[in-house]
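just leaving the lab so this will be short. below you get a single protein, a line of residues and a line of whole numbers that encode the local backbone shape. id like you to explain what the token line says about the fold, in plain words if possible. thanks a lot i owe you, the record is right below:

…
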Amino acid sequence: MNKIISALNSWRFIITEPILLKIARWRYEKFYKNKDEQPLISICVPTYNRAELLMTRAIPSVLSQTYKNFEMIIIGDHCTDDTEKRVSEIKDPRIRFYNIPKRGYRYPPTAENHWLAGPVVAIDQALKMVKGEWIARIDDDDFWTPDHLESLLDFAKTGNYEFVSSKYERESFGKKEIVDGENADGKYFDPNASSGSGPKLGGVQTWLYRSYLKFVRPNINCWRKSWNRVNDIDLQYRIYKAGARIGFLEKITASIIPR
């Protein structure tokens, strides 16, 4: 059953998403011609009962950005802790919080499936709420460099890219390393690939993309797949396969540390 559902979804995405991209460009690309404007960026943050991480990592990183024209959409995946109360105490009109009213059945509730598909419902809700011309992603436990938005937006506008990402720094067991992007046509995304060509795609916390690409929705059935099973990997690869113009900034703009 998993193979059948994954195959049907795959064919649906392959057929429909390139067409939807052409329609979106026809409708919206004209609004991205002015490279001197300071467009609104919608920052999407999924979270679930991790108020302390959210308050000490993601939110301070966003509020310290050199680029100021943004909205921060925090989606609680039916949080039952004090997340909503603590966010409401931040007196900044750019921050919005929405708590999903209930958590119904989504997939077999294993630890692995939570890792693979856990944020999908919250991210899908956030995408419905965006008002900006651009979309950025940060998880509640991640950090951005202060020039994260400014650097990625300048890079995207200069190269006329629709989707950009970058390098980030990761700390694990006391050791820091720089995480590069993976070639879109390489074996990381396709085990049957014969080359490592194509643009590089970086971690989800480094994404910045035009909001008309939000027709590429998170895949709640990503856990059923045999490859590219993590929700954000599935999503960015589909954006690439749809034909989006993609750029990779050779600069560290985010960091991940143990939680």
In short: The two ends are 36 Å apart (CA to CA). The CA atoms of residues 167 and 252 lie 5 Å apart. The first helix runs from residue 2 to 28.
